[in-house]
Write a structure and sequence with these properties.
- The chain is an alpha/beta fold.
- About 30% of the residues lie in helices and about 25% in strands.
- It has a 5-stranded mixed beta sheet.
- α1 runs parallel beside α4.
- The C terminus is likely disordered.
Length: about 250
């Protein structure tokens, strides 16, 4: 399996769970283009035979709650509203591409926004290099999958990355279908707070939502650079950079 992790400031790619390249960057889409070229040059025999998993950081793919919106009559109306609301809610400066997980007419629905220019760059790259994306997902979505698999009664999940802290919460996170999650909290803190600041914020949220530590899940994903160039999980239980498999096929880009 070939996986790519793209963040606002750094990222890289892996083959079968082992990092093959990692670097810092100023422009995300240019880094993505460079890594795909590296993959093609180093693994030409596999390049045309596999579908690539693309993970986006929380700074690039930001969740938010959309709705409820009374009077909606079609899915296109819901998407139009979600796209219009996304920049102000998520903090993006320009127009966004949005994926809604559910109908926002009756209750808040989880939406995920990425910058339109990034979405267009991912589209263009797939066309020019004949890439088939197996999935294009936020890295925090895999953390949510993991949290629910290990602790089905969870009420809040937080995921800290180099560029953002993502927090999701709700009374019905144990519902097995993503489209039926009862989210009442979806927030992105970017730039990412320090570890001390993040933990202070986390404990305040636990108190305000009357949750115990066993009712919540917090993960900090260290970059490859922070780990000294290794893939192995840190001794304190931090997750590996690369999920063992892409769970689901949710994608901004087909």
């Amino acid at each position: 399996m070939i996986e790519i992790y793209l963040g606002m400031f750094s990222g890289g790619w892996a083959l079968d769970g082992r990092t093959q390249g990692w670097s810092s960057h100023d422009v995300a889409w240019q880094a993505l283009e460079r890594w795909t070229q590296d993959i093609e040059e180093q693994h030409a025999s596999r390049w045309r035979k596999v579908r690539i998993v693309l993970w986006l950081s929380g700074g690039l793919a930001r969740p938010y709650l959309c709705g409820p919106i009374s009077g909606l009559t079609s899915w296109s109306e819901a998407e139009t509203f979600a796209v219009a609301a996304a920049p102000e809610v998520t903090g993006f400066e320009g127009p966004c591409c949005v994926q809604l997980e559910d109908w926002p007419g009756d209750a808040p629905a989880l939406g995920t926004a990425i910058d339109v220019s990034l979405a267009e760059s991912i589209h263009a790259l797939a066309r020019s290099r004949r890439i088939v994306w197996r999935s294009v997902r936020p890295r925090w979505a895999a953390v949510l999958d993991e949290a629910l698999a290990h602790r089905p009664s969870i009420g809040m999940v937080a995921f800290a990355e180099e560029d953002a802290l993502t927090v999701l919460g709700g009374p019905s996170l144990n519902v097995p279908s993503t489209s039926s999650f009862g989210f009442d909290l979806a927030a992105t803190y970017s730039p990412s707070p320090s570890r001390i600041q993040a933990m202070a914020l986390w404990h305040r949220m636990l108190l305000s939502r009357d949750l115990q530590s066993d009712d919540a899940w917090f993960e900090h994903l260290e970059s490859i650079a922070e780990r000294g160039g290794t893939d192995a999980a840190a001794e304190d239980g931090n997750p590996t950079m690369w999920p063992s498999a892409a769970r689901g096929t949710e994608a901004f880009v087909s």
